[in-house]
């Protein structure tokens, strides 16, 4: 297992619509393991493949927050929403590709998702609370959409300018 570098916005690879995973290969299994390790290390509750530069439809998440609770690592391949509640909720979101920037985003309160697991089996589950927010945020990544794309243009441009500055500082620090 190894940590993979996380791309920071703005990056053209974060704006691409990702391709479906055609087959669960050893490379896909290794990618999923690395993504989970990278997500826990960050730390974060979700990470999508394009955030590590792989333009394929796959994300990982674990939204267990309770102290001492067992982790619940999930790998969702070719995920799709099969149902979304009419009721919405606003949560403060962040993103490992947009460090230390947070904003409220309104999304359906509950979603039902269908995906393929690492064994190639079809899975379906309902998510709510933080799990629902995270699953929708990560699915957005697979369509080249970031949480700041849900904000107004002024807020989005402000955050993007901060990220450009951050990347410049990091490049200079080498
Ligand atoms: Ni994100």
Helix and strand arrangement:
Blueprint: H1 26-41, E1 46-48, E2 58-61, E3 74-84, E4 88-95, E5 98-108, E6 110-116, E7 122-128, H2 129-142, H3 153-173
Antiparallel strand pairs: 1-2, 2-3, 3-6, 4-5, 6-7
Q: Mind explaining what this structure looks like?
A:
- The chain is an alpha+beta fold.
- The longest helix is centred in the C-terminal third of the chain and has 21 residues, at 153-173.
- Strand 6 and strand 7 (122-128) form a beta hairpin.
- It has helices at 26-41, 129-142, 153-173, and strands spanning 46-48, 58-61, 74-84, 88-95, 98-108, 110-116, 122-128.
- It has a 5-stranded antiparallel sheet.
- It has one domain (12-173): Peptide deformylase (Peptide Deformylase, Alpha-Beta Complex).
- The protein is globular and about 45 Å long.
- It is 29% helix and 29% strand.
- The protein contains 3 helices and 7 strands; from the N terminus they run H-E-E-E-E-E-E-E-H-H.
- The mean pLDDT is 97.
- Bound molecules: nickel (II) ion (NI).
- Nickel (II) ion (NI) binds at residues 95-97, 137, 141.
Mean pLDDT: 97
Catalogue the unreliable spans.
Answer: none
Helix content estimate: 25-40%
CATH architecture: Alpha-Beta Complex
What would you report as the Rg, rounded to the nearest angstrom?
16 Å
What is the C-level CATH assignment? Alpha Beta
Query: Number of helical runs?
Result: 3
